[in-house]
Amino acid sequence: MITKQAESLVPTEFGNFRIIAFSEVENNWMPHMAIIAEGTDLKKVVNVRFHSECITGEVFHSKKCECGKQLDYSMQFIHEHGGVIIYLRQEGRNIGIINKLKAYALQEQGLDTVEANLELGLPADDRNFNIAIDMLNELGIKEINLLTNNPLKMEAVEKSNINLISRIPLQIPSTKESKSYLDVKKSYFGHLLKDENMEKKKAVE
Fold this sequence. Notes:
Helix content: 25-40%
Number of domains: 1
CATH topology: Rossmann fold
Shape: globular
Number of strands: 7
CATH superfamily: GTP cyclohydrolase II
Radius of gyration: 17 Å
Largest sheet: 7 strands, mixed
Distance between the termini: 55 Å
Strand content: 15-25%
Mean pLDDT: 91
Order of helices and strands: EEEEHHEHHHHEHEHH
Number of helices: 9
């Protein structure tokens, strides 16, 4: 059973957050974390983001994905409006950094993100969002607004004892390096992403 192992107030460039480490054992070096904005009332409807670890995007600012910018946006949003980021240690859709770099190498040969994973004999997406549900339950959260474009995250909440009140879109503009990645998110995984070309056309009109 995943439980709280440690917590502390952490000041960041976005504001102050209470960070709680969750794990089945206290000596786990890679615990999942709840990042809670100061002043958040967990008994009310809570803004929540399920965010999976992406060391390449968050630490090294890779342009191949929008993960780092999504995390930054989420921290700013949560700081301003209150809420919780459930940070899941599920690197590379839970294939790990070594396999992720192998997949990157295959992408250099022309495969997309899903094709690369499958070529390695790995699932297209092996993440487990039930862990996030367990963490919400540990925090006593009953109702949430979910910051996401991913229907699988919404489905995980809808199948749980947590009440999903609304979805808050979180779309980061694509770059030439991330366009293929985002196209696959929309076409293969069914992410709820707006057509950027249509949005640009509307802006011009």
